[in-house]
């Protein structure tokens, strides 16, 4: 997988005029499950911006599409990586704790039960996620501060928007299997998102 990603990266560098990386001196941000090493979030998003979920599903028909109509709110429109899962309802305590950790190019997937009564993400948490190297968030629920999030270098897909904040009671679960939109998502599954939707795969598609 590392070799395939490296070959793809070299190809994209030449196509986009990106300066080559000295892989001999390259230190990965973090090593994710299955021994897959991600480069920096900025480099990953650069490569991701040239692809689309339709292309990925055409090449990998085993990938599943989440059957919900998400809206893209972040400045990064194409993103993907291994999933970190959170299950909560109108309480974003676990989301706040998660974005404060090193992201290493991963994607936070939040099952908020589809509630649009309170926002699970705002501008400060989105900015913190971007600063800590998370590739993006997929939220089965609402966000707020949408104008500020639109200017933040992070991918955000959510069902809608709501100006109200959530409670912070520490209620919820992390790193558990979640399911919404007809798709079961487990920690470490690969999630990819763009303006066409969100797809999930057991294997890395890039």
N-to-C order of helices and strands: HEEHHEEEHEEHEHEEEEEE
Number of separate helices: 6
Q: Which second-level CATH architecture applies?
A: 3-Layer(bba) Sandwich
* The top level CATH class name: Alpha Beta
Could you report the average pLDDT, rounded to the nearest whole number? 84
Write down the Rg.
16 Å
Q: Percent helix among the residues? A: 10-25%
Net shape: globular
Coarse structural class: alpha/beta
Question: What do we call the CATH homologous superfamily?
Answer: Ribonuclease E inhibitor RraA/RraA-like
- Beta-strand percentage range: 25-35%
Q: Identify low-pLDDT runs.
A: 1-43
How many strands appear in the DSSP assignment? Answer: 14
Distance between the termini: 8 Å
CATH topology: Glucose Oxidase, domain 1
What about the largest sheet? 10 strands, mixed
Integer tally of domains? 1
Report on the structure:
The protein has a single domain (1-206), classed as 3-Layer(bba) Sandwich (Glucose Oxidase, domain 1). The chain is built from 6 helices and 14 strands. By secondary structure, the protein is α/β, with parallel strands linked by helices. It starts with a helix and ends in a 5-residue tail after the last strand. The model is unreliable at 1-43 (pLDDT under 50). The longest helix has 15 residues, at 2-16. 25% of the residues lie in helices and 29% in strands. The chain has helices at 2-16, 41-48, 53-59, 93-99, 123-131, 146-150, and strands at residues 30-32, 36-38, 64-65, 71-72, 79-87, 107-111, 119-121, 136-143, 155-161, 173-174, 178-180, 183-185, 190-194, 197-201.
């Amino acid at each position: 997988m590392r070799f395939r990603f490296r070959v793809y990266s070299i190809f994209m560098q030449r196509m986009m005029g990106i300066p080559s990386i000295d892989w001999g001196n390259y230190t990965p941000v973090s090593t994710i499950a299955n021994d897959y090493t991600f480069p920096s979030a900025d480099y990953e998003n650069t490569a991701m911006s040239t692809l689309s979920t339709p292309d990925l599903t055409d090449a990998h028909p085993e990938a599943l599409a989440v059957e919900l109509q998400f809206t893209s709110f972040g400045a990064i429109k194409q993103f993907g990586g291994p999933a970190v899962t959170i299950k909560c309802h109108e309480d974003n305590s676990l989301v706040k704790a998660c974005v404060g950790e090193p992201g290493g190019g991963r994607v936070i997937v939040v099952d908020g039960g589809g509630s649009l009564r309170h926002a699970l993400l705002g501008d400060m948490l989105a900015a913190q996620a971007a600063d800590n190297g998370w590739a993006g968030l997929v939220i089965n629920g609402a966000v707020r501060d949408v104008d500020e999030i639109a200017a933040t270098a992070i991918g955000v897909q959510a069902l809608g928007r709501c100006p109200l904040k959530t409670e912070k009671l520490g209620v919820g679960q992390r790193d558990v299997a979640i399911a919404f939109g007809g798709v079961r998502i487990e920690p470490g599954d690969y999630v990819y998102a763009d303006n066409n939707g969100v797809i999930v795969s057991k294997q890395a598609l890039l």
